[in-house]
Amino acid sequence: MTTREDCAALDAADPLAAFRKEFALPDGVVYLDGNSLGALPVRTPERVRRVVEEEWGRELIRSWNDAGWFEQPYRLGRRIAPLVGAAPAEVVVCDTTSVNLFKVLSAALRLRPGRRTVLGDAEAFPTDLYIAEGVTGLVEGARSALIRPEELDRHLDGDVAAVVLSHVDYRTGELLDMPGITARVHAAGALMIWDVCHSVGALPVGLDAAGADFAIGCTYKYLNGGPGSPAFLYVAERHLAAGPLQPLSGWFGHARPFAFEPGYEPKPGIGRFLTSSPSLLGQAALGASLDIWERVDLAEVRAKSLALTDLFVSLTEDLDGVEVATPREHARRGSQVALRHADGYPVVQALIERGVIGDFRAPDLMRFGFTPLYLSYTEVWDAARQLAEVLESGEWRAERFSRRGEVT
């Protein structure tokens, strides 16, 4: 059994340990929910203050040009591109994950005229399901079909226009084979859309290498952009000259916005996927976090992520009433561990009261996210010990934990 002293030795040798000081972490808390909302980088308040007080407060409208506000969606996209294995001109930061999925899914249907089926994972994060339902509802004869990834091959027929899957399952942390699945989808003549919300910043993502067509992702989880921070989208270069692909033809995506023309002509390149003015305060916060990510070795992030999750699994797999729902194989695991427990909700609440913050997903999954930039091995050991004590003591049965509610 690994001891706390063993974990302290791992911390002393950790090549990522220096990044911990880049984040504002409250004392007495072991934060295992970075897969839902990342911690605050210490540079973010100053960056946002500068935009508010100087760029907006003093320079006013001149900042659209002088501070580069117009170029911010592209600039941030170029900075995210290496994190998802994309070329700089294939990524832009804008809008929300849901809005961006609407745009790229609409584009995929336009690129596959005559095909009317969109396949999605029946257990995906609900926004992916709802948006697919909404988009297909706007196209006569189109339909959204829900399957499980392991059933994909028998559903890939000549009517499938696009497949939408999450790279990492938000519930169990299962990592899908991006290159293999993309190749199979292409062999059937369909287009592949990846949701990388739970993988960007947690492990190397290779969109170009896998041959992906489109991708969408958020920046408030492992990228630490802050609550409600802007999302991003990826479009493979080969699709960027195909005409006005996306239907949200707003002013910011016009080729000549200041010509104020009545007809719409899309910007060249990735700019055609812009719709409206950027959320500049949110983008400022994201920029502060990306300052950190530009100094990070993703291979080291992945190695530590696997070591942290291995450690947590080994310390919790034999606890009474617990079943590990996350794949044990490294090639099939993201950066979280999901444990099944019949009374998972009150157990998580009892842990939170002890300062170990995870979360719960119905009906029985306790989720624990592992963020290598600011999480230590000793904290993982401590969290596992607290979970063991909660289960052994039965304190989760207390009345204050019995009321069902939402855990973010």
From TrEMBL:
<comment type="subunit">
    <text>Homodimer.</text>
</comment>
<feature type="modified residue" description="N6-(pyridoxal phosphate)lysine">
    <location>
        <position position="221"/>
    </location>
</feature>
<dbReference type="GO" id="GO:0097053">
    <property type="term" value="P:L-kynurenine catabolic process"/>
</dbReference>
<feature type="binding site">
    <location>
        <begin position="125"/>
        <end position="128"/>
    </location>
    <ligand>
        <name>pyridoxal 5'-phosphate</name>
    </ligand>
</feature>
<dbReference type="GO" id="GO:0030429">
    <property type="term" value="F:kynureninase activity"/>
</dbReference>
<dbReference type="InterPro" id="IPR015424">
    <property type="entry name" value="PyrdxlP-dep_Trfase"/>
</dbReference>
<protein>
    <recommendedName>
        <fullName>Kynureninase</fullName>
        <ecNumber>3.7.1.3</ecNumber>
    </recommendedName>
</protein>
<feature type="binding site">
    <location>
        <position position="98"/>
    </location>
    <ligand>
        <name>pyridoxal 5'-phosphate</name>
    </ligand>
</feature>
<feature type="binding site">
    <location>
        <position position="97"/>
    </location>
    <ligand>
        <name>pyridoxal 5'-phosphate</name>
    </ligand>
</feature>
<feature type="binding site">
    <location>
        <position position="251"/>
    </location>
    <ligand>
        <name>pyridoxal 5'-phosphate</name>
    </ligand>
</feature>
<dbReference type="GO" id="GO:0043420">
    <property type="term" value="P:anthranilate metabolic process"/>
</dbReference>
<feature type="binding site">
    <location>
        <position position="195"/>
    </location>
    <ligand>
        <name>pyridoxal 5'-phosphate</name>
    </ligand>
</feature>
<comment type="pathway">
    <text>Amino-acid degradation; L-kynurenine degradation; L-alanine and anthranilate from L-kynurenine: step 1/1.</text>
</comment>
<dbReference type="GO" id="GO:0005737">
    <property type="term" value="C:cytoplasm"/>
</dbReference>
<dbReference type="InterPro" id="IPR015422">
    <property type="entry name" value="PyrdxlP-dep_Trfase_small"/>
</dbReference>
<keyword id="KW-0378">Hydrolase</keyword>
<dbReference type="GO" id="GO:0030170">
    <property type="term" value="F:pyridoxal phosphate binding"/>
</dbReference>
<dbReference type="GO" id="GO:0019441">
    <property type="term" value="P:L-tryptophan catabolic process to kynurenine"/>
</dbReference>
<dbReference type="InterPro" id="IPR010111">
    <property type="entry name" value="Kynureninase"/>
</dbReference>
<dbReference type="GO" id="GO:0019805">
    <property type="term" value="P:quinolinate biosynthetic process"/>
</dbReference>
<comment type="function">
    <text>Catalyzes the cleavage of L-kynurenine (L-Kyn) and L-3-hydroxykynurenine (L-3OHKyn) into anthranilic acid (AA) and 3-hydroxyanthranilic acid (3-OHAA), respectively.</text>
</comment>
<feature type="binding site">
    <location>
        <position position="198"/>
    </location>
    <ligand>
        <name>pyridoxal 5'-phosphate</name>
    </ligand>
</feature>
<comment type="similarity">
    <text>Belongs to the kynureninase family.</text>
</comment>
<feature type="binding site">
    <location>
        <position position="220"/>
    </location>
    <ligand>
        <name>pyridoxal 5'-phosphate</name>
    </ligand>
</feature>
<dbReference type="GO" id="GO:0009435">
    <property type="term" value="P:NAD+ biosynthetic process"/>
</dbReference>
<comment type="pathway">
    <text>Cofactor biosynthesis; NAD(+) biosynthesis; quinolinate from L-kynurenine: step 2/3.</text>
</comment>
<dbReference type="InterPro" id="IPR015421">
    <property type="entry name" value="PyrdxlP-dep_Trfase_major"/>
</dbReference>
<dbReference type="Pfam" id="PF22580">
    <property type="entry name" value="KYNU_C"/>
</dbReference>
<keyword id="KW-0663">Pyridoxal phosphate</keyword>
<keyword id="KW-0662">Pyridine nucleotide biosynthesis</keyword>
